[in-house]
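User: Predict the full complex structure for these chains.
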Amino acid sequence: MSHISFSNIAITAMVTTVGDQIIALEDEKERFGLDDETVARLQKTIGLKTRYIAQDDVCTSDLCVQSAKNIFEHTAINKEEIEALIFVTQSADYKAPSTAIIMQDRLGLPKSCAAFDINLGCSGFIYGLFTAFSYVNSGMKKVLLCVGDVNRHFAGEKDKILTPLMGDAGSAIIIEQTPSAQSFFALYSDGSGYQHLIIPKGGLREPSSEQSRIPTLRDDGSIRSDEDLFMDGKEVFNFAIKTVPPLIKELLEYAGYENDAIDYFVLHQANPYILKTIASRLKVSPEKVPLETGQIYGNQNSASIPGTINGFLSEPFQTSDLTIAIAGFGIGLSWGGAVLHTHAIYAPKTLRYTKDER
Amino acid sequence: MNLRNVILDALKTVNEDLQCEALEHISEQTPLFEVLDSLGTLDLILELESSLRNELGRYIAVANEQSMNRKETPFKTIVTLEAYLAERIEHESH
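Assistant: Here is the predicted structure of the two-chain assembly.
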């Protein structure tokens, strides 16, 4: 895709809700069969401390609905002006219909609101945001973008490699017409790497079977079934290091900005070392690149960029005009980025899920 | 600075947690990349960066686009890794 820019469109509200259970890595030793040495390795290399996960009866849409309700309760944004609801997730409520349509009713949005799902992971916020900007650019007043995942849907219950990294989160973001400088987007896909992050079976290509549902011990030491998410960590690491720095550089060049013009580089929170390496390659000062989200909340997939803003940058986003660069990268393989401006938006600290909201 | 010793020391530290038999007696033929999982490779990168910072007084980024690429990784053996680190240090000096 060639680069695309938009004028006078911006994010005006952003709320993230995380699962209500805080689990420390130490507390998961028995569940995953982790010995002290493995816990030490995870803490040293990835900095894992805790993660926030949802109860077994909570869906991603529940987290997003709480986030969206918070926006409508605390801002003057009029529900009646929401003309599209886009839900980016890999953990839909049902195989069909699109969860976004059910959320339209739960949120009391008008029936004139278009609603649909997008199936993407860690690049999903950028794709959803681009879609929302495009809709507003085509004339819609306001779009509600919801992103996130509840990871028990695809992360193996006993997978000691992947599951301890994952956190559950759902964000709601309002995009609307408002005076703002130009925003810039670039999106990419490379399906040749689809096997590096995949749920191999359970779809039409490789249907579900009794065998595919049985968790077994794999070469990498994890226990998972073919219907659980598999990640080739080495390939994904290379992919991130290879694609993200050039993506940010080209976006800045397209926007006509130097690094200094960017207040924050908010990147998908894959792991701190990847983020540090990307920052180093971009020659960006480390304090402009937040990297703690995964260590505190877990990997929030498509919600990790808003999750980082609500989790760690709430104050500057609520009080200042900012220019930010964002980038998401992951399953697909798929990646994308944007340079945006925000103007003292509604972005409270991350919320924890409360059942009353269901 | 003896780069070979830096690598061997880093591998020894990594193996304190990993406890991999193949890393207990490392030779020039030991297939490091095959022996280390992704976390182990990352751990080795962190150890090497920390040692190089102590030795040289500055940060040398050890990871590159090929670090974890099976075909082109510089982490194949201690020989390829030593050559790669020498090149990185040289590159960062200019």
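The CA atoms of residues 12 and 19 of chain B lie 9 Å apart.
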